[in-house]
Design a protein that fits this description.
Helix content is 43%, strand content 9%. α4 runs antiparallel to α6 (121-128). It has ten helices and four strands. The protein has 226 residues and is mainly alpha-helical. It has helices at 6-11, 19-22, 26-46, 48-61, 93-96, 121-128, 136-142, 155-158, 189-202, 205-220, and strands at 68-74, 80-86, 146-148, 174-176. The strands form two sheets. A two-stranded antiparallel sheet has the order 1-2.
Length: 226
C-alpha cells in the first residue's frame, strides 16, 4: 500500500482539532520546551557576532532608526505578544502598508510583496538569508514561540480567520515549520494552513528535528524568501 500524499492526509480528516487533543502528549511537550530553551540559548550565544555585525550595518544605513523591530503577533490560544526581528524596512513601514495592500502577491490573510519598496538595502540581504528572524530566539527563550511551529500571524490577519484557520493557533508558534520548508512565500494562505494543521496532527520529536535540519538546507538555497 502506497504512503498517502500530503494532500490525501489532510483531506482524510476534516474534523476540527481541540486544545485537549493537541496538548495530550505531555512528555513530548516537556521535551519540546527543554529543546527550545537550550536551542535558543545556544543560538543567541553562538550567533552573537552576527547580531553585532548586523546591528552595525543597520545603523550605518539608517543611524536614526532602531536596530530591532518588534511587532504584535498572535500566538497560542490567540494570545498576543511582541515578536522581535532585525529591522529590515524603513522606520515608517507600517504606515506605508495601506498604500501597498492592493499589490499583495500572496492569497488569503497574509501580505507579501517581492519588490517591497519599504525594504532597505541591508534588509534585502538579511531577509533573503532569514538573518532578520534570528532575534526570535528571544521569543523562544521567553516561551512565546517555539523553534518549530506555525508562523505567528498579525492581529489584522486573524480577524479574517474562519474557525478552520484558527486551528493553527492551538499550539505555540514557531521560528520555522512545515510551511517554511515546503515553499514558504510561494505557498498560498490556504495551503499554508493545511500544512500547519498537518504538522499539528503529526508533530513529534523526530518531525521537529527533521524540520529544523531541513530548514538549514532550504535557507542555503532559498529562492522564495523575500
Amino acid at each position: 500500500m502506497k504512503a498517502a500524499t500530503v494532500e490525501q492526509r489532510v483531506a482524510s480528516s476534516n474534523h476540527l482539532l481541540t486544545a485537549d487533543q493537541v496538548n495530550a502528549n505531555l512528555s513530548y511537550l516537556r521535551m519540546k520546551r527543554l529543546i527550545d530553551i537550550f536551542g535558543s540559548l545556544i543560538g543567541l550565544i553562538l550567533l552573537s557576532p552576527i547580531f553585532l555585525v548586523v546591528a552595525i550595518l543597520i545603523k550605518i544605513e539608517d543611524p536614526k532608526g532602531p536596530v530591532f523591530f518588534r511587532q504584535i503577533r498572535v500566538g497560542k490560544d490567540e494570545t498576543e505578544f511582541y515578536m522581535y526581528k532585525f529591522r529590515s524596512m524603513v522606520t515608517d513601514a507600517e504606515h506605508r502598508l495601506k498604500d501597498l495592500i492592493a499589490l499583495n502577491e500572496v492569497s488569503g490573510a497574509m501580505f507579501k510583496m517581492q519588490k517591497d519598496p519599504r525594504v532597505t538595502r541591508v534588509g534585502k540581504f538579511i531577509r533573503k538569508t532569514s538573518i532578520d528572524e534570528l532575534p526570535q530566539f528571544i521569543n523562544v527563550l521567553k516561551g512565546e514561540m517555539s523553534l518549530v511551529g506555525p508562523r505567528p500571524p498579525l492581529p489584522r490577519e486573524v480577524l479574517e480567520y474562519k474557525i478552520y484557520h484558527k486551528q493553527r493557533l492551538l499550539i505555540t508558534p514557531g521560528c520555522t515549520g512545515i510551511w517554511q520548508v515546503n515553499g514558504r512565500n510561494s505557498v498560498g494562505f490556504e495551503d499554508m494552513v493545511k500544512l500547519d494543521i498537518l504538522y499539528i496532527k503529526n508533530r513529534s520529536f523526530l518531525l521537529d528535528m527533521q524540520l529544523i535540519f531541513k530548514t538549514f538546507s532550504v535557507l542555503l538555497g532559498s529562492k522564495s524568501a523575500f
